[in-house]
Design goal:
Elongation Factor Tu (Ef-tu), domain 3, Threonyl-tRNA Synthetase, Chain A, domain 2, 19 helices
């Protein structure tokens, strides 16, 4: 550092020019603790010890670098996940995935045969949780995210390493893997370039990174070409020119659902036009509008733009470039021209339903945090007039009891009917006051802060979030909220779906009617229906078991065919063969029949062919352990499968299965096994 820049172009020499030593926390700790490496300080030493114990390796040996990489990358991954970043194939999520996968690759280098990193989270939290409580809050999410990602990555790694081994077999030390091959591993199999380089480095082999970059750029160029050629993409470019000429659209929809506006732009068939005629579809841009443009998960408004003799039906409203509101629809009457004044009216009932669903989403978000933990963070949402959908970070399915608790908390605040308050604040002030912001979301200098729900003992509202959407005036306007579903969206991301107000009431009424219908069918009251249905299902399982046992006994009885003989067991070239054709037996039961036949046989080969109720055929061949060196069950079923009209078959040397479309050839399939056994035994 040499100058103090007073203003652009004017620099004053510093009285003591200096050098930035990079003296961060770890380096200062290394000096104070008398060690020469950041990885020898107490913070990293605890993590590296945990890694060494988990992998039974020497942290100071030849694989020292792997211990250090895992410790460093574990720490980085944990903090990113606690901040709301989850592994993905783009953006910050892809950065996280690459960090995680590099550490996971080194876990395998250390000999870890099972996912390792998730088992180290507790050691990290013990070391850093007191100073960084967000790690404690998100420990469950971090652990589950690492476990799932490493489980998947091990499958990717095994596949990629096998291909890499094949492609680099002829390369010697000092050689280079082609960039095209490295790119194919990345693009087709999800094998990052740095992992390819790591895997080859131990053999002294490099990678043609220039060729890799060229292949990557070719793919990007193709993607840009394909994107630019679509009509929708071409249309997007015109909004820049329209905004430069006409300016932004002022949004009035927080305070009103009716207004007047001047037409500043008209678009039809991907191009700007001077007018839209009766019956023509297109888009209208206005200087101001009460119509909400789709954003933040909330869908766009619908409604009507009108003037004397003119009517335009708005079927959707989108927001382009952040502040250009585009009203799409069709002219039902008259003609719309540039500069025309129009009356603007939002569909009030639809907007009301959307407001209720958006406010309910905020209440559900906070209720989920209270029930599941502070790690819950929004990952996406949909606010429509008939339903709401909320995606959030959580590592495992939500139990029925937890969902019921979330629903109860949200409805309790709805029943309190407290006002929903909206304030404009500086973004830093809003976040400092406790408002929840979405990680990675871009906010302007001034933001809307929406507070709702009853206040706690410290006079804090139940829910406080930064939000640009539209909301009810009081929580009671939501009516009620009913959670209709819970599911997984991605690794570490769950989704709840819900309905509010009339939609919730209709949903609950329909559910009640379905229960009454079921109760009527099983001749029970609605209260007794679950127990009665459970008993009926148990009876059905019992009857199915009894039917299966009866079929198996019948199939193995003396009355069944044994390839033309009354007795199913006979000597074939000195080897006992149990051969029987049966009907209507499932594949899983064929296997158990084969196991039973092997027990009675002692030593030999078992072949059981089945003709199903659908006319298809199946065969199972089993070989007793003492004969698997001489005979392979897979070879036998492949020959039998051809007689059934099938191809191939699979299994192990001691048990294999196959099928085919022609069950009438079951006897022929058994004969094929017998012929093959005779040939192999005699040979």
């Amino acid at each position: 550092m040499q100058f103090d820049e007073i203003e652009p172009g004017r620099r004053v020499p510093l009285p003591r020019p200096s050098i930035d030593t990079g003296m961060g926390l770890e380096r200062m700790a290394a000096l104070l603790q008398g060690v020469t490496s950041s990885f020898d300080i107490d913070l990293f030493r605890a993590l590296i010890t945990a890694i060494a114990e988990a992998t039974n390796t020497d942290p100071k040996g030849a694989l020292q670098a792997s211990h250090r990489i895992i410790a460093d990358h574990l720490r980085a991954s944990a903090f990113l996940i606690s901040d709301g970043v989850l592994p993905s194939n783009e953006g910050r999520g892809y950065v996280l995935r690459r960090i995680m996968r590099r550490a996971m690759r080194h876990a395998q280098i250390l000999g870890a045969r099972e996912p390792l990193m998730w088992r180290l989270v507790s050691a990290l939290v013990r070391e850093m949780g007191a100073a960084y409580p967000e790690l404690i809050r998100a420990e469950a999410l971090i652990t589950e995210t690492l476990r799932l990602e490493e489980t998947r990555f091990r499958q990717t790694l095994a596949r990629g390493l096998a291909i890499l081994e094949e492609e680099s077999r002829d390369l010697r030390q000092g050689g280079r893997l082609s960039g095209e091959t490295a790119f194919r591993l990345y693009d087709t199999y999800g094998f990052p370039l740095d992992l390819t380089q790591d895997a080859l480095r131990a053999r002294g082999i490099g990678v043609d990174t220039e060729g890799f970059s060229a292949a990557m750029e070719r793919q990007r160029a193709e993607a840009r070409k394909a994107w630019g050629g679509s009509g929708e993409a071409a249309t997007e470019t015109l909004w820049f020119g329209l905004r430069d000429r006409a300016g932004a659209t002022e949004f009035l929809g927080y305070d009103t659902e009716e207004a007047a506006g001047i037409v500043t732009g008209l678009v039809a068939d991907g191009a700007e036009v001077q007018r839209l005629k009766s019956g023509q579809a297109g888009s209208v841009v206005l200087n101001q509008t009460p119509f909400y443009g789709e954003s933040g998960g909330q869908v766009g408004d619908t409604g009507v733009l009108s003037a004397p003799g003119v009517r335009f039906r708005v079927t959707d409203t989108q927001k382009k470039l952040g502040d250009v509101f585009v009203h799409s629809g069709k002219v039902e009457e008259g003609e719309i021209t540039l500069g025309q004044s129009l009356d603007l009216e939002v569909d009030h009932a639809r907007r009301g339903a959307i407001r209720a669903n958006h406010s309910a989403t905020h209440l559900l978000h906070e209720a989920l945090r209270q029930v599941l933990g502070d790690h819950v963070a929004q990952k996406g949402s949909l606010v429509a007039p008939d339903r709401l959908r909320f995606d959030f970070a959580h590592p495992k399915p939500i139990s029925d009891e937890e969902l019921a608790a979330v629903e109860d908390i949200a409805n309790a605040h709805i029943l309190k009917n407290t006002p929903v308050e909206t304030r404009l604040m500086a973004v830093n002030e809003a976040i400092e006051s406790g408002a929840r912001a979405l990680f990675g979301e871009k906010y302007g200098d001034e933001v809307r802060v929406v507070s709702m729900g009853g206040r706690d003992g410290a006079n804090h509202p139940f829910s406080v979030e930064l939000c640009g959407g539209t909301h009810v005036q009081r929580t009671g306007d939501i009516g009620l909220v009913s959670i209709t579903g819970e599911s997984a969206v991605a690794a570490g991301v769950r989704r709840v779906e819900a309905k509010t107000a009339d939609a919730a009431r209709h949903h609950l009424n329909a559910e009640a009617q379905r229960l009454r219908d079921v109760a009527s069918l099983i001749k029970a009251s609605a209260e007794e229906a679950p127990a009665r249905l459970s008993a009926l299902l148990e009876d059905r399982k019992r009857l199915e078991r009894e039917l299966t046992d009866a079929r198996k006994k019948l199939a193995m009885g003396a009355g069944s065919s044994g390839n033309g003989a009354d007795q199913p067991v006979r000597d074939v070239a000195g080897v006992k063969l149990f051969s029987r054709a049966v009907r209507g037996v499932e594949m899983k039961d064929l296997k158990s029949l084969a196991d039973e036949a092997k027990k009675t046989l002692g030593s030999g080969v078992v072949a059981i062919a089945n003709t199903g109720t659908d006319g298809k055929g199946a065969i199972v061949v089993s070989v007793t352990p003492d004969l698997t060196q001489r005979f392979n069950a897979v070879d036998f079923v492949r020959l039998a499968s051809e007689r059934l009209g099938g191809k191939g078959g699979g299994g192990r040397p001691d048990m294999a299965q196959a099928g085919g479309p022609d069950g009438s050839q079951a006897e022929a399939a058994l004969q094929a096994v017998e012929d093959a056994l005779r040939d192999r035994a005699a040979g």
